[in-house]
Amino acid sequence: MPLLSEDAKGVYVITVTPFTESGEVDWDSVDRMVDFYEEKGVTGLTILGQLGEAPKLTSEESRKIAERVIARAHVPVVVGVSAPGLAPMRELADSVMGMGAAGVMVAPPWTLKTDDQVYAFYASVAEALGKTPWVLQDYPLTTNVTIAPKVIDRIVRDLPTCVMLKHEDWPGLAKIGALRATSERGETRRISILCGNGGLFLPEEMRRGADGAMTGFCYPEMMVGVVENFARGDENRAHDIFDAYLPLARYEQQQGIGLASRKYVLAKRGVIASPTLRKPGASLSKADIADVENLLARQARRLTEIGA
């Protein structure tokens, strides 16, 4: 599988981690999940992210999941390797790259407070990872680390193994525009920008210069449809598809039960056997399930109306 590059485009879906009802990794569901995402047309997979419940996994489980997914996938796989220290980060990165991963993703630790600290951290990451291509995960709503466009530009100029930005700032549309402006002026390389936040702003992000999505949603075909139609120049069709799925995507972005609702729908679709989150984790109430079922019914009717 080719290595991740700054030309990457499309949808690199953030995968869930399937668990049995007793909280063990469900390996059969892992296989089924990989097949499902590929059948829906994703460009790549991103595993061991925050919504993949990576912090709840042991180091051995993380390696085994990476090995299983990489061996089964026919698309590039990016692996989240964020860790409190560089040594475990490098250890996991070396391991998954040896398995055939396309690249790795690194989020900043919450302790970073200044621009210089952010730059110094990623300079250390680049040194520790050597030739491994990596994704800068910019998700201040979770990490509490704000990375200004000028800092990202500096990282891109100085650290050639940074090939992608996972843009997950909110509001962040102006940031995409600022980053694209500096590359268009020739002041920095043009790297890939894939966006997160459940795809809630995907059409606007594409219009500002994003190359696609790197996020999760129980209907990855929404993101695939939006990105493919933008690539064809059919923004109206992209918006029609997006609008049909938006109510459910919005529901999925709730703190606490968002991931539980995503897993509920994936289980309902037959992708994973159980919607279980590993403890500590939320579960849906009867009222929550009624909400989701109502949204699914309305979504189905709307998709029929637009012929999608």
Automatic annotation (TrEMBL):
<keyword id="KW-0456">Lyase</keyword>
<dbReference type="Pfam" id="PF00701">
    <property type="entry name" value="DHDPS"/>
</dbReference>
<protein>
    <submittedName>
        <fullName>Dihydrodipicolinate synthase family protein</fullName>
    </submittedName>
</protein>
<feature type="binding site">
    <location>
        <position position="214"/>
    </location>
    <ligand>
        <name>pyruvate</name>
    </ligand>
</feature>
<comment type="similarity">
    <text>Belongs to the DapA family.</text>
</comment>
<dbReference type="InterPro" id="IPR002220">
    <property type="entry name" value="DapA-like"/>
</dbReference>
<dbReference type="GO" id="GO:0005829">
    <property type="term" value="C:cytosol"/>
</dbReference>
<dbReference type="InterPro" id="IPR013785">
    <property type="entry name" value="Aldolase_TIM"/>
</dbReference>
<dbReference type="GO" id="GO:0008840">
    <property type="term" value="F:4-hydroxy-tetrahydrodipicolinate synthase activity"/>
</dbReference>
